[in-house]
Amino acid sequence: MEYEKFLRTKEYFADCDLTYRLDPLTGVLNRQVATEYIDYLAAHGKKFSLFLIDVDNFKNVNDSYGHPAGDEVLATVAQYFVDNAGEKGVVGRYGGDEFMIIFEDVTDYDEVWNYGHRIDINIGSVKFSFSAEFSVTVSIGIARCPIDGADYGTLLGVSDKALYRAKMKGRNCFIIYLPEKHANISLKKERDNRTTSMQMVYEMYRSLTVDGEDISMAIRNVFRSFVSNFMYDHMCVETAAGINFNVVHALSPRSEFKPVTYSLLLGSTNYAGNIRLGSFKGEGCGEDYARLSKEHKKHKLSSTFYTKISAYGKDYGFIRVDMVNSVRIWQNTEVSLVMALADMLGLILHYQKKTLEELPKVRETKVGAQK
Question: Are residues 146 and 206 in the same domain?
Answer without folding.
Answer: no
